[in-house]
Amino acid sequence: MRKPELTITLTAILLLPAYSVALAEVEGITGGKQLQAAAEARARTVKTDELNKEIATTPDLVLIDVRMPSEIAKMGGAIDAPQNSNIPRGWLEHRVTNVARDKDVPIVVYCGAGIRSPMAAVTLEDMGYTNVRDYPEGFIGWRRANLPVKAPQSE
User: Fold this and answer.
1) Ordered domains of the chain (ranges, CATH)
2) Are the CB atoms for 40 and 117 separated by under 8 Å?
């Protein structure tokens, strides 16, 4: 049986090089960390209780999960709401008009824990959508609040 301390230490040692590379700064390049901070400062947000009420009272709300389908499966599902659509972050600009046909429709974007959703919200604003908010607590926050979760679809 492995000791928890050893497992945590080995995991940290194995992940540290990848984490360091991902956060490497390059002179003259705006990195992901800076883009993330700028998007978080710019995006309007919605809290869990507000989103839960809005799902119940705003049928034209467009709720967009920007996680990959594999993440949805690994994390155990998505927010259970009729307005929920999955558009992975990499496809957002190309597919959003399939679900948001009016520039003024209320849109809320979320991911697992608020890493990609602020950048998705800012992208939608840059595209011309006027009523976009980020749900920074993400699926993890929704699940922690014991709110309805839709099981992932089997492929």
Assistant:
1) 4-28 (no CATH), 36-150 (3.40.250.10)
2) no
